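Hi Q.,

Before the meeting this afternoon, I wanted you to have the DI6 prediction in hand. No need to reply - just skim if you have a minute. The sequence and ligand are here:
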Amino acid sequence: MSAPLTLWRGARLATMCPGAPWGLVEDGALLIEGSTLRWVGAEHALPAALARQAEQDIDLGGALVTPGLIDCHTHLVYGGHRATEFELRLQGASYDDLARAGGGIRSTVTATRVATDAQLYKLAAQRARTLMAEGVTTIEVKSGYGLSAEHEARCLRVARRLGRELPLTVRCTSLGAHALPHEFTGRPDDYIDAVCGWLAEQHAEGLVDAVDAFCEHIGFTPQQVRRLFETARRLGLPVKLHAEQLSNLHGAALAAEFGALSADHLEYTDDAGVAAMARAGTVAVLLPGAYYFLRETRLPPITGLRTQGVPMAIASDHNPGSSPGLSLLLMLNMACTLFRMTPEEALAGVTVHAAQALGLGATHGRLQAGRQADFVVWDLAAPNELAYWFGRNPCRRVVQAGIEVGGPD
Ligand code: DI6
Ligand code: FE
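Predicted structure with the ligand bound:
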């Protein structure tokens, strides 16, 4: 027996499908069957036979509807916070100095290791719900604050549990190569060997959708990242990389060489890195929250990415050190004001391109028949308003996998 059909109509649809700016459809209708979009288009074109099958008919009175938003780069699972480091940075300490002095990521590792599974889950679920209240229906969650076999697996299990218990699609990324834990001081190559070993175990337990690393002078060298990526390749796992956030180690080109889903940050990426990403079809994930919070002044190569046709995604990078924000809509605004992206590019960055960055490019990120029925009804008339307002939540209703999950709490 087929699932009951629900008709949502009277919508201004920003489908994000090619053909028209924003894929805009006026007087649009969406027909939902189970968790899937059965039909999407202008209401007058909806076949009468299909319309008759709808058990429920919901008129949206002209409201804007977009695909569910996708936050494709977050570090949601951690204990503690770093407000004191924030104060130290305001007094002149640099992010790198704090990291080298044993603070930074490693101080969050200490706080994460002492937290119980229940505490980690509660904190991560609260953060996820804050994102969801603004229309987020899919997130990526990285490990990277456990940095031991036991604690990395614990963080990944918490991430998986979010996907089981919340109305949210969750993709889990293993980021053991985030920083060198104190047990391995002076032995980064041994640490990478250990991370490669854990990866196989995490994968066998079904905890990993992708593998990430922090390629940086305060993280890991391209040679170390290469070894990790070779292990990921042997396990059949896709890769992505924190590349060129603070300096240019040619990480974007390395990621592209491995056919990475995405290379993220990219403030210091050069033309050769952009060209390599374009050839490989690697998505550029831009993180204006980290750029803002670290008071970075060097812009990612937006013009080069645009002219070379590299898809650009936008994400929160939510983490306690460089981007403690939990508003994806604010990231849209910052992508426009700080990075000079267009509002349409910004929305594509949290829908169609974010889906691609998670390997969900065929099923998520657009309002199109056959895709998962994830969409948001906004208290807005035009799609460019999404990037315009900030500090206000215009999310009115959210449907995830065909089920209405509510709007803001
Ligand atoms: N880059 C980032 O922006 C986060 N991780 C990374 O590799 C920051 C992590 C932190 O400071 O806790
Ligand atoms: Fe990050």
